[in-house]
Amino acid sequence: MHNPAAFAGRIVKVRATVASGFESSTIVDVKDKSRRGPWFDDALKKGEQPRDGRDAELQRQHAVFLKEDDNMKRFDDALSAEVYPRDKRMILIGGGRYNVTATMTGRVDDAGANRLGFGHLNAYRVRFLLSSVQDISSEERDYNWVEFSREPVQFLHGTIRGKLLDALGKPIKSAWVGAIPAEGEIPISNPEVLTEEDGSYSLNVEPGRYFVVVNRTNPATEGVPVVTTYFPTTETEAEAKALDIADGAELTDIDLHIHRTLTPRYFEVQVLLSNGNVATGAHAYLTQMNQAPIAGRGITHTDPAGKARLMGFEGIDYLLWGELGSWPNERCAHAVHLAPDRPSESTIVMRIELTQSGCSKQADEARSAAYAAQKR
Predict the structure, then answer these.
(1) What is the DSSP string of 171-234?
(2) Per-residue pLDDT at 81 exceeds 60
(3) Residue 260 in 3-state DSSP?
């Protein structure tokens, strides 16, 4: 790590401890764990195609493959061993059971002096690409075993199963189906799963009374042109059917039927600077006004003329956003309300006039309004 250029592209052997955590994957020297180690990744498996970009070029120059033997299995098993909170409300990030050390053989990749290029946000200059391991040792981490368990903890729960079907009875895949309490406040986090290829879903919930709902906090998309719909087939909570779930109960055939499929609606947008010049590098996107938190439709970058074509759906109340740069130096346009009955325009022109404080205030107000629309 003092001189990574001397090892670039070479196969080396190191004795190291895995130091992966939240949004990080690194290894550290067993003799000096204070020093920042390289980004840690696996080499390609035999027959796997090189990754795009620099990975592909490095693989062509200095090919290295993963040795999937018994040592690697023991190494992976130790790394994947978890501990489990005894309280369901506790959130545990990076709850690995062991500190794992091994003699590792792999390739060193170096982005170059004064450059970054590997790992999360490309924040690492050096990467170690693992090929094989030996001499594996593991040390159990120090947890309070009153609060944590070495074995999975079974909480009280019931199961809700069903399918998501369109107006013709065909399954809808990759849609978010969730369960929310039928009474009282709605927590920020609720049981939620994506539907399978055949439209099926399976939710585990604590005993209680629930509404099952699809796309409650997710906007309609081209693949899932569905607005918020409650079991069995209503778009309003007032008409939804509540389900009572006891511990150990299993409710089946809880099918949600979508009675209308949304029709695409397109918006032509141009983003300009306050002086009328094209806002190079800007982006635009839509959000549904009644969704909380604000759920974007995916950022669309403008073309050299500052233009973009956005897809929404008929009958949906949208906000149109135009932004340039990122926090803390973001600039943006005043959000435009696109009501369902708004006449079509050839091009909607947005001017970048607000600074970071104005952009943040505008987003906070929109988010608060969306939450208010969903209060009981």
Answers:
(1) B--S-EEEEEESSSPPPSS--EEE--TTSEEEEEE-SEEEEEEESSSS---SS-----EETTTB
(2) yes
(3) coil
333 touches 285 (CB < 8 A): no
Which amino acid would we find at residue 194? Answer: L
Per residue in 33-68, pLDDT (tens digit) is: 777 889 999 999 988 877 767 778 888 888 899 999
Hey, how many other C-beta atoms are within 10 angstroms of the C-beta on 315? 13
- Nearest Cα to 129, choosing from 54, 229, 194? 54
Residue 13: name the closest of 102, 100, 104, 127 by CA: 104
Answer whether 0.70 is exceeded by the pTM. Answer: no
Which string of DSSP letters, residue by residue, matches 41-81? EEPBPTTPPPPTTHHHHHHHHS--B---SHHHHHHHHHHH-
d(CA 58, CA 109): 8
Q: Is the pLDDT of residue 3 over 80?
A: yes
Strands 348-354 and 264-273: parallel
- Specify the amino acid at residue 217: T
Binned at pLDDT 50, 70 and 90, residue 318 comes out as very high
| Parallel/antiparallel/unpaired status of strands 300-301 and 176-181 | unpaired
Show the domains of the chain with their CATH numbers.
Answer: 4-148 (no CATH), 158-257 (2.60.40.1120), 264-373 (2.60.40.1120)
**Which tokens hold the place of 247?**
């511990």
Closest of 353, 352, 347 to residue 270, by C-alpha: 347
Structural tokens at position 94 = 């990076």
Buried residues in 194-220 as b, exposed as e (16+ CB within 10 A): ebeeebbbebebeebebbbbbbbbbbb
CB of 240 closer than 8 Å to CB of 213: yes
184 CB neighbour count, 10 Å cutoff: 9
The three-class DSSP label of residue 19 is coil
Kindly tell me the sign of the dihedral angle through the C-alpha atoms of 30, 35, 38, 42.
positive
Instruction: Quickly tell me which residue has 């009981």 as its tokens.
Output: 376
CA distance 12 to 130: 10
Inter-residue contact 310 to 300 (CB < 8 Å): yes
